[in-house]
Amino acid sequence: MDPQPEIEMDIDFKNYKKPKARTLCPTKEVDPDHFMEPDLAALLYLVQFLFKPDRKKFLEVFNCVHCNACKTSNSRYYLKRKLHNARFVSRSTEGMLESYRKYDTPFNQSKYRFKIPEEVPKDSDTLFYMGCLSTIKIPRYTLNAIKYLLSKEIDFTVLDQEACCGIPLVDSGETEMLEALMEKNVATFNSGYKKVVCLCPACFELFNHFCTGIKPEVVYITDYLEPLKKKRRVTLSIQHLCQLLYRGFDQVIPKVEQILIDSGYKIMKNEKHWCCGGGMGIMHIEKTIEKIARIRVNDFKGELLTTYCSSCYHILKLFTRKEKIKPKLVDIFTLLTE
Predict the structure, then answer these.
(1) CATH code of 111's domain
(2) Last residue of a domain, which of 161, 189, 224?
(3) Is the pTM of this model over 0.90?
(4) How many CA atoms lie within 13 A of 249 on its CB side?
(5) Are residues 168 and 212 located together in one domain of the fold?
(6) Residue 6 is assigned to a structural domain of this protein
(7) Best exposed site among 7, 151, 242, 274 by fewest CB in 10 Å?
């Protein structure tokens, strides 16, 4: 079943209204006809017998990229589970499940698309967990992160093969395979590691808010960012992370900005935060995600554009090219490498 309704794509993306004039929720902004208001989503979660799965609610509940700006992402996760159990299953979910059975990832492969540098130790009590989106869809971003950690003489190791954290299954309403993946990752983390460093904020959030029984500390890679010693003078646009900003980790945002400012970068202050559309990857509502992304990338006016989110980087990489915007996309690890 396809949760993607027909939406208007013939708009002027380059001259779309500014972020401060938009609704906070990106899917409401681009497809208001198929949007469930936050108050209703919260009510249907709290008074569960009121929710009756049908085609209309299927379209409305799936019309969400889970940025959590409305604070009802968890309510919508619950409603997706109810829909899934009532056999309102997204076409994307059906394809993912087959891939998960074979590869433990949603991408029909599990092999990393880059070579792990020989300098990475084989053994360490700190595990760098990269995430399947990072290792398969944006290998250069991931390799740059590894090289950055090595340049800071951080002691860490990586797995020969990772199992997905399971967030695409959370976003789809599936629970059985999700539980199996979480159990597998918990067992891996508890096999002797003292710390797990996440490259992807979705993985970081899932391990902190959904998984139980993880013994090592789970941290985000921004803990290891440091300012440059030799300052660079260039204007910089930033796509911050909804998965940190709207999920209780907002203290990371000013810390990252200060590191960039201390490195000499001039941050563009007139570019109000708005979701890039990549909160759950590119699935279920691909046209809606594309519309959000093409609007968002045209907000950036700095000489460079950066992010420290795997999903954001994937989205920006695809749609900065499509929209041919002026700023050059550069990952934060490259920006902070001497």
Answers:
(1) 3.40.50
(2) 224
(3) yes
(4) 22
(5) yes
(6) no
(7) 151
Going by their DSSP bridges, the two strands 235-239 and 266-267 should be labelled as parallel
Same domain, 290 and 256: yes
Three-state secondary structure call for residue 217: strand
Domain that holds residue 202: 103-224
Q: Is the four-CA dihedral 291, 41, 220, 190 of positive or negative sign?
A: negative
111/207 same-domain check: yes
Whether 4 is in a domain gets the answer no
**Contact present, 60 and 36 (Cβ < 8 Å):** yes
| pLDDT tens digit at each of 338 positions of the chain | 999 999 999 999 999 999 999 999 999 999 999 999 999 999 999 999 999 999 999 999 999 999 999 999 999 999 999 999 999 999 999 999 999 999 999 999 999 999 999 999 999 999 999 999 999 999 999 999 999 999 999 999 999 999 999 999 999 999 999 999 999 999 999 999 999 999 999 999 999 999 999 999 999 999 999 999 999 999 999 999 999 999 999 999 999 999 999 999 999 988 999 999 998 889 999 999 999 999 999 999 999 999 999 999 999 999 999 999 999 999 999 999 99
Q: Alpha helix locations (H) across the chain? A: 26-30, 38-46, 55-62, 73-85, 91-103, 132-136, 139-151, 167-170, 176-189, 201-209, 242-245, 252-262, 286-297, 310-323, 332-335
Q: How many domains does the chain have?
A: 3
**Cα of 51 vs its chain's centroid, Å:** 28
Three-class secondary structure of residue 272 per DSSP: coil
Which of these, 288, 296, 298, 330, lies nearest to 313 by C-alpha position? Answer: 330
- Coil, strand or helix: which one is 266? strand
Q: Hey, how many other C-beta atoms are within 10 angstroms of the C-beta on 264?
A: 14
Does the residue 147 lie in any domain? yes
Q: 229 in a domain, yes or no?
A: no
Token pair of 36 as six digits: 């469930």
